[in-house]
Amino acid sequence: MADKNFERGSMLLPVPTEPAYIADKDTLDKLFLTSDEFNFPLGSLSLNKDVHLKINGDKFFSKHIAIVGSTGSGKSYAVAKILQDVVGIENDKNLKKSKQNNSHVVIFDLHSEYAAAFSLHKDELFSLNILNVDELKLPYWLMNSEELESLFIESNEQNSHNQVSIFKQAVILNKEKYNPSIKHMTYDTPVYFSIKEVFNFIENMNREMISGVKGENKLPKLFDGTLIKERKEYYFDKIHDFAPYSQAKDDKATNGPFNGEFNRFVSRLETTLSDKRLKFLLDPVKTDNTPYKSEDFEEIVTFPPKTVPLVIRVPA
Question: 34 with 110, same domain?
C-alpha cells in the first residue's frame, strides 16, 4: 500500500517466518473505499460489521455469478438480499419509486422461496408478477419436433425409429386436418394439432389388420367389414376394433405392418397424456375453458401475456 493508496496484488510475497498483523481501521477503510465506481453494497466483514464491502455493480452483474454453500448456510437469503439491493427494497419499502423505468428481473423460483422477499404494498409502486404452474399455459403444439420426440419417445428403444416415423406422420396429417389453409405443412410448423387424436392414430396403427380377401386390395379392415382407403379419414376420430386374424378364404385377415409394434409406445403415450402435472402443457385451456388453437398464437407469445404475468417487474 505505497503512498497509502491500495493497489491490487503485490511483488513481494511473505514467507512462513514473516510476522502477521491485524489490519487496523485506517487500512481497512482504504481497502474497502467507497467511490462512484464501487457503489453496490455486497455485505460487511464478518469480524467487523462496521466495514462495508462495495463493488462495481456493472462489472459484477455482467458476469456469471454463483452463490454456493452447504445446506442451511443462507444461500437463498443471500440471493434475495442482493436482488433487494439491486431493485431498492429495504424494510418493506421501495426506495426507488421515483426512478421507475420498467426494468425486469426474472427469477426461476423452483421451490417458491422468494415471493415474500419482493411482496410490497401497492402504494410502493412495485410490481411482483408470480407465474406458477397453475397459471402457465404453454401449448404442446408450439414445441418443435425435437422437443416433442424427447417428451413422448424413448430413443434407446429398439424400434424407436419406427416410433419417430409413425409419430411424425400422425402429427403432420393432424396439422393438415386442422390447418387446411397452410399449403406446405412440416413437422415443425407451429400450428395446432390434437395430441389425443395423434394417440388414436398410433393406437389404430398398432391394432391394424389387413384384409386378404380377393378384391379388397389388401386394405385395412374394421370389425364391421369397413375397408379403410384413407387412414387419416378414420384413425384420428376414435380407436377402432379391427377384423380378427383369419386364414379362411372368405374372411382372411393378417396383421398390419405395425400390428403390436407400438405396445410400449402407446402405453407410454397414455401415461404421459394422463399426467396431471403436465396439464399446462398437454391440455392448456383459455379462460372460457376452450383449448388454444392456431389463431391464438399471438396471444400466447405476447410478452408478458395480457392475462398471465411472466416476470417480476422492478424499478432499476
Answer: yes
Cell of 315: 424499478
CA 108 to chain centre: 10
Query: Which domain, by its residues, includes 180?
Result: 140-284
Domain count, the chain: 2
pLDDT in tens, 75-120: 999 999 888 888 888 888 888 877 766 667 888 888 888 888 888 8
DSSP, res 240: P
Q: What is the spatial distance between Cα 128 and Cα 90, in angstroms, rounded to a whole number?
A: 16
Which of 106, 128, 150 is the last residue in one of the domains?
Answer: 128
Measure the CA angle with vertex 246, ends 245 and 247; round to 5°.
140
Measuring CA to CA, how many Å separate 127 from each of 98, 99, 246?
Answer: 14, 14, 69
The amino acid at 141: W
pTM, rounded to two decimals: 0.64
Task: Please indicate, yes or no, whether residues 20 and 121 belong to a single structural domain of this protein.
Answer: yes
Domain boundary residue among 128, 162, 193? 128
